[in-house]
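[Q] Does anyone have a clean structure-token version of this?
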Amino acid sequence: MSKNDNGHISEWLNEEFAYRETDLRMFMSNHYKLEMGFALLCVSGEALLTIGVLENRIIPDTELIVLPKSTISLVSASEDFRVRMFVFSSELMDNTSLRLGSSLFLFLRDTPFFQHTPNCTLLRNLNVLMDNAELVSGEKTNEMVELMRFNFLQNYFIYLYDKCQNHFSHLFKTYSHKRSLFFQFLSILDEHYEKERNVAFYADQLAITPRYLRKITAENANFKSPKEMIDKRLIIEIETLLYKTDYSLQEIAEQLNFPDQSYLSRYFKSHKGCSPLHYRKAIKFLN
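[A] Here you go.
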């Protein structure tokens, strides 16, 4: 692994398209809201990675697709944890995915990872795709590089679309009604958490009662209630803004629909045990 695989996040995670082999430790111990998306394949070791409020266990032969605008954090990783991955900009994804419609990306948002069987055809094909991503990423001076990136990403999504329909369709069949509602709740939460913190709002969007939403949450995630999930998503966003921006507490309060910065501070301290300013100083000192 080269020295620049782990720091310098802004250098390659903000490129239109890039390939790396890395251990993801640039995402350790903090939450990062990414403008780009990425696809990865775990080649060794294991890790716990959160996407939004959900924790995913990554082991060898896990394929993970993270769409743009996601918030992620590496919770833990073994010393030998390593992945192959390529990143792509939101604009590049939008341009290449127009012909596929929304169904694939709704599926990927709800089911971002798949565990491949060792030495299976799908895994071999995925490694070939990663080889191609490395090739395209290395083409910096080719006058057709933008077309190469477009064609690669479009082919990757078309390949996924076919496999989601023909190989992963059983996942849809095994989803219970409660599981389906749970994923819908996650999608609605990701869209509205900045403005809506009332459980009744999300239950109403799903056409169910708050009590039933609580039951769904308890059965499908390690959270006691939907309110706990709403608070967790909001705290993640506050932490991200404290670390990644220089926004004042008042600006953060306004963005996240708090009455004022004092209310924001009390809310944050009740969940994290320290004030927002103390958290900002501590996390920037550690990094």
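[Q] Thanks! Anything notable?
[A] Strands lie at 17-22, 32-33, 37-44, 47-51, 54-58, 62-66, 71-77, 82-88, 113-115.
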